[in-house]
Design goal:
570 residues, Oligo-1,6-glucosidase, domain 2, binds 1-O-alpha-D-glucopyranosyl-D-fructose, eight-stranded parallel sheet, binds calcium ion, single chain, five-stranded antiparallel sheet
């Protein structure tokens, strides 16, 4: 592994593909690997250097691939290992490297390790997972389950208890996610030994790293009851524990250090101190982490209780993370989050300018930008019409809990419609043909409804329009690739009007100032900012402004990159 300082991945943008929804080559309604291979030239033309592939391993798809039943083969709906090898080699020909999604906190309950483990308490695989007797309760029913309750009070990320009772051995097993995703037991050294071999298998096939799914919860330091909380009771026993750091150091020492690869951790509930411990260079653990704090600026307690987006809070959080870590994994949406233009921008009157505004933010912050499929054309939330359209396991768990809590159906539905992860999982919108060009015409319906706005928001239309969101992304990615101040410069926040994000990026004597208006109101720039930019050069404007003197105010959702010092051209 190359040292972080001059690592090959530091000047590249990452594009996340959710395989099920990207491109269906054979007309079965499900995206697949040959479909991805057919779109490599599109990614190359966009200016992408790295592809993050969400899971393509064998899976019963309880959680769309985040429940793995065979780490060394490809689920049949996505294709074959041969297809995967072809994708890796074809991508390399276009100088696009691939990182895979590493899901090792849990497997599928259909993984052979688990089917063995549940057979008996003495099975050699029993301790690959976390099994415990239930606690007796005061009932005396003939049904064993009625006479006991889960071993502790932990709750699942998907809501409900984090334990499932298995009659075969009269014990419970731990699952921090769905019942079909039993947690692996990293107190058993055999588990980590198995994982190391899986990592080497994929790295030897030529992939260039991993996005590590919920990697900071894999080590449980105790199974004691947790402090009672509204969500995720028990978290203090498994979030970023010492044992997790030990495992990450071991993986880097024994596996990653021998390959030209990098790792990005999906690290839930981290603060900046935890993030620092997980990814600063001297720690020898991860190369960068996804944080979630900026995703908490439009709800109360959790995403199901939406409030109005607060740009001021969002700007404050981003500023904090940009200032505390020397390298961030920057993202505004992914397969778990709703569409950013609907969430942080405006997907009606200001759809075009606000999608471009978010592109300026994503591609000028310090760190690695992660573009999620469809974000580059301003794909919006799906505005589903009823629960029958929702496929996501998490949404159905939440709906069940809300039903038990007697939430009225209309309230329950609003929660799901607004916050379901399926908002980001509708098929990629390629053109105006049937199924938005995601699937061949006249074949099966896609596995999830195509967003009804595909006739106006699609790759084909935008490829032909030099003023489109897609063209803006291409131009910005090209600009970014030549600007050291943006690629590796410092970050310094500047004082700006309410809801306006002003910051400076500087490397040696090259300096850029970025101004972003997150509101629908016209905003007057402070005299300080005006004095900073008056002799600057406009590098990029989502209103196509070319005259610097107009920057006394910012229009609704206006964003601009101004170079205030060109630096040494050598
Ligand atoms: O997500 C972890 C995770 O915390 C998310 O489920 C997040 O909490 C939630 O979606 C926000 O409401 C990872 C994967 O990205 C996700 O797709 C999987 O469902 C999950 O882990 C289990 O593997
Ligand atoms: Ca297919």
């Amino acid at each position: 592994m190359t040292q972080k300082g001059n690592a090959w991945w530091k000047d590249k943008a990452v594009y996340q593909i959710y395989p099920r929804s990207f491109c269906d080559s054979n007309g079965d309604g499900i995206g697949d690997i040959p479909g991805i291979t057919s779109k490599l030239d599109y990614l190359k033309d966009l200016g992408i250097g790295i592809m993050w592939l969400s899971p393509v391993y064998c899976s019963p798809n309880d959680d769309n691939g985040y429940d793995i039943s065979n780490y060394r083969d490809i689920q049949k709906e996505f294709g074959t290992l041969k297809d995967m090898k072809k994708l890796i080699s074809e991508a390399k020909k276009r100088d696009i490297r691939i990182i895979m999604d590493l899901v090792i906190n849990h497997t599928s309950d259909e993984h052979p390790w688990f089917t063995e483990s549940r057979k008996s308490t003495g099975n050699p695989y029993r301790d690959y997972y976390i099994w415990r007797k239930g606690k007796r309760n005061h009932k005396h029913s003939s049904d064993a389950l009625q006479n006991q309750k889960p071993p502790n009070n932990w709750s699942s990320f998907f809501t409900g208890p984090a334990w499932h009772y298995d009659t075969l051995t009269d014990e419970f097993y731990l699952h921090l996610f769905s019942r079909k995703q039993p947690d692996l037991n990293y107190n058993n050294p055999k588990v980590l030994a198995e994982i190391k071999e899986i990592l080497k298998f994929w790295l030897d096939l030529g992939i260039s790293g991993f996005r590590c799914d919920v990697i900071n919860v894999i080590y449980k330091s105790s199974l004691k009851d947790g402090k009672k909380r509204l969500a995720l009771t028990g978290r203090e026993h498994y979030v970023s524990q010492d044992g997790c750091h030990t495992i990450l150091k071991e993986l880097k020492r024994d596996v990653f250090s021998a390959y030209d690869c990098f790792t990005v951790g999906e690290t839930v509930l981290v603060d900046t101190a935890m993030a620092h411990d997980l990814c600063s260079s001297e720690r020898g653990e991860l190369d960068m982490v996804f944080s979630f704090e900026h995703m908490d600026t439009d709800h109360i307690n959790n995403k199901w209780f939406k409030t109005k987006f607060k740009p001021g809070k969002f700007i404050k959080v981003i500023t904090k993370w940009q200032s505390c870590l020397d390298w961030n994994a920057n993202y505004l949406e992914n397969h778990d989050q709703i569409r950013s233009v609907s969430r942080f921008g405006n997907d009606t009157k200001y759809h075009d300018v606000s999608a471009k505004m978010l592109a300026v933010l994503l591609l000028t912050l310090r760190g690695t930008p992660f573009i999620y499929q469809g974000e580059e054309i301003g794909m919006t939330n799906a505005y589903f019409s009823d629960l029958s359209e929702i496929k996501d396991v998490e949404s159905h768990y939440v709906n069940e809990l809300a039903k038990k809590m007697h939430f009225p159906p209309s309230i329950r539905w609003k929660m799901i419609q607004k916050s379901s992860r399926d908002n980001a999982r509708t098929p990629m919108q390629w053109n105006t043909q049937e199924h938005a060009g995601f699937s061949p015409k006249g074949k099966s319906e896609p596995w999830i409804r195509v967003n009804s706005n595909f006739r106006t928001i699609n790759v084909e239309n935008q490829s032909k329009n030099k003023d489109s969101i897609l063209s803006f992304y291409k131009c910005l990615l090209s600009l970014r690739s030549g600007k050291k101040s943006i690629l590796k410069g410092s970050f310094f926040a500047l004082p700006g009007p309410k809801d306006v994000f002003c910051y400076e990026r500087e490397f040696e004597d090259e300096r850029c100032i970025i101004l972003i208006n997150f509101s629908q109101k016209t905003k007057k720039l402070t005299n300080v900012i005006q004095s900073h930019i008056k002799n600057g050069t406009i590098l990029c404007s989502n209103y196509n402004h070319t005259d610097i003197s107009c920057f006394v105010t910012l229009n609704p959702y206006e964003a601009v990159i101004i170079e205030t010092s060109q630096g040494d051209k050598s």
